[in-house]
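Here is one chain, start to finish.
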Amino acid sequence: MTESQSIENTLSDSTFEIGQFWYYFDEDRWVWSDELARIHGYAGTSEVTPTTQLVLEHKHPDDKARVDELIQSIRNGHKSFSSLHRIVRVDGTVVPVAVVADTFVDDAKRRIGTSGYYLVLQAPGALTKASNEFEAQLRESVTDRIDEVVDHRADIEQAKGALRLVYRLTDSQAFDLLTWRSQETNVKIRDLARAICDELGSIEITPQTRSQFDHLLLNAHDNE
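Its structure:
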């Protein structure tokens, strides 16, 4: 079973359009899941071989230079990353995505790459050229969804606030991201939100904050 196929069953049941990737620093090599290939407009991984050049070709022109700089930074620094940017699918459709990742190591505990997820934002706002942040667009359905877990509103709102701060998301997008992790880890939203909130005090507000939060988001379910 390939790396891409190994998560096929996990991702196929998600209501979110998400895909996984692996990037190997020294080899400058990318591996995409079939879902990520489809997000870019391909039929699957059998139709495309991802490279750094191809990854950049799919970035929106206004975001390409920033993402190129980010890729060079993570390759040279052997670190993880997160990003909000737009990709351009094969058919020309522009899609806003959030990317969260964490590093992985070899048997000698040496960081050899970074892996993570592309999440197509369910309520995409336009990224502005000036700030590359999404415009504030709230969806009325958020209130209805949160009412289902009203007794746990405080933890959920606090977790959403942290997501909004770190990833520059709208209120609705933050809830979508939290819901995705709940589905991905099979942990209830309220429990996942509480686990995230319990660990917020351990994160220092430094230039490395975003990288640290990526790690928390992708591993919070282990605290349950």
